[in-house]
User: Which sequence fits this backbone?
């Protein structure tokens, strides 16, 4: 996952204000074709997941034992799995679960890691030492291993999976938020706010946090891709939601017994995971470049 620490952010221009800033940001982002393509891919899968119940697809839970591991056809675009269920319908409905896990895990990471990073960066001193030493201890564990530890304690299940992935993402989020807060806190407008008598909480909420959102948004976008991959890995190991829920990691786990006789059962859910993760990564990289004044966007 790309790092966003130390990003040189675009500042809101004096002339035109926030509208000019948004136009500049949008123009720089749209010049990045890979980022726009990644955003479109992510939006397509998100739309498919949201409107899956309204699309007239086959029942993702319905079994046809006469069509077990059938290859792709007009009746079943992605073929059927080992229980005769339509793979295309399960991939589309699975987008709801995989993207929900990514969104919830990102929210947890932002809540825990973001709060810790704000406290460490703004107040410094002992609070900074305590938070960063804790973060360094947690970052000594690989993200997947930390998520395995948490879900092993909480037990398997969809909501425990979301929480485990979010907790495993919190340390990296805390570092990014702390770096962004430290950079913004040193700006002249923050010193000016202090000079006119603004309280610490007002300086933090009205000046520091709003002007630190750029790297935080980028990190959240990149974290979506990592969360989806981690959740799929845990589901593949049997630590996520239980079958027959059409979650992509579960689909891969169920299809591994048919890898040689029906490769389509693993191909399409694997491609879905790859495309969504790649889409969020490309969009996050493009957003990072758009916010970074040191990067020349062609």
Assistant:
């Amino acid at each position: 996952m790309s790092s966003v620490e130390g990003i040189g952010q675009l500042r809101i221009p004096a002339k035109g204000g926030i509208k000019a800033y948004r136009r500049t940001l949008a123009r720089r982002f749209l010049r990045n074709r890979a980022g726009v393509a990644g955003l479109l891919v992510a939006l397509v899968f998100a739309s498919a997941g949201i409107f899956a119940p309204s699309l007239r697809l086959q029942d993702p839970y319905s079994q046809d034992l006469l069509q077990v591991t059938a290859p792709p056809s007009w009746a079943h675009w992605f073929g059927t799995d080992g229980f005769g269920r339509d793979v295309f319908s399960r991939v589309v409905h699975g987008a709801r679960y995989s993207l929900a896990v990514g969104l919830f895990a990102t929210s947890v990471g932002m809540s825990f890691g973001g709060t810790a990073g704000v406290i460490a960066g703004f107040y410094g001193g002992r609070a900074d030492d305590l938070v960063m030493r804790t973060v360094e201890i947690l970052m000594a564990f690989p993200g997947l291993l930390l998520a395995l530890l948490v879900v092993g304690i909480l037990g398997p299940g969809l909501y425990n999976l979301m929480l485990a992935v979010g907790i495993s993402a919190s340390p990296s989020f805390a570092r990014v938020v702390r770096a962004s807060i430290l950079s913004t806190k040193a700006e002249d407008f923050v010193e000016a706010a202090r000079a006119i008598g603004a309280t610490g909480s007002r300086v933090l909420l009205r000046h520091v946090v709003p002007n630190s959102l750029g790297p935080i948004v980028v990190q959240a976008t990149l974290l979506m891709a990592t969360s989806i991959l981690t959740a799929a890995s845990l589901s593949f190991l049997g630590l996520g939601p239980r079958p027959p829920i059409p979650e992509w990691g579960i689909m891969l786990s169920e299809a591994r017994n048919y890898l040689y006789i029906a490769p389509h059962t693993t191909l399409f859910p694997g491609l879905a995971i790859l495309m969504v993760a790649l889409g969020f990564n490309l969009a996050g990289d493009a957003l990072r470049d758009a916010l970074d004044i040191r990067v020349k966007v062609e």
About this structure: The mean pLDDT is 85. The chain has one domain: 17-291. The radius of gyration is 22 Å.
